[in-house]
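#structure-requests
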Amino acid sequence: MSGGGGTDYTTDGADGPGWDLGLEDDSGAVLKAVSRQLKLWREAAGLKQAEFGAAIGYGEEMVSAVERGRRIPKPEYLDRADETLGAGGKISAMKKDVEEARYPKKVRDLAKLEADAVELGAYGNHNMHGLLQTEEYARALFDMRRPAYSRDEADRQVSARMSRQEIFGWQPAPTLTFVQEEVTLRRPIGGRMVLRRQLERLLEVGQLRHVEVQVMPTDRDDHAGMAGELRVLKLNDGTSVGYSEAQLTSRLISNPKEVQILEMRYGIIRAQALTPRESLAFIEKVLGET
């Protein structure tokens, strides 16, 4: 824990372009171990990469990339490798570890936190919150990252973000509230059609009984969210935590006094924004103009 009562993560914007992971990500070690084991099993079987690839239905280039840790093997890759190499289930057993390692550690930690929440509230001021993003909107965000992600890393980040959206279908359903700045409804990230589909997604999610989406109009002259994005989560055990984001840093906040400040700010932000019903009408209006 940091001196301020929170944990500092050198990551920028959990729901923005996701700049530098910064932390030592244990997923890298897992994938290296899996890659090494696959190579050892193949060599022990006396197969060259091209021969092994042909046997499991993949090209030599893919096999090479997997064994060098450049590509993450899919479950079917591991199953076919297990069968071809006679591993007796030892390679297939790696699927769970590989699936977890497919997503960055920070995202896995955030997803676990969201999974433990009975209430989640989030204020976003420069792009759609990650739980609200369409896949193409999320991809456009990751594609604009500077310095640029590789295609594989961008795919990994997008998959991780989409996996978090399973929260909408959970039972019992957590209460989810979002306040989005008006500018996030108008900024054409990914282009006009991507934005249109993103607005349609907002309208769809906003109709769910356990979800409320609100819009903070730009013309508000009193605004409690000037310090930036934030989110507050009430957990199953009755405790609350906060989460704030800034350039290169995302901070998990557990100090009760600091969490109380974030809860107060978020409550005022919601009161200053349009009501959920007014907000859906506003989003429909922007959609018609887009």
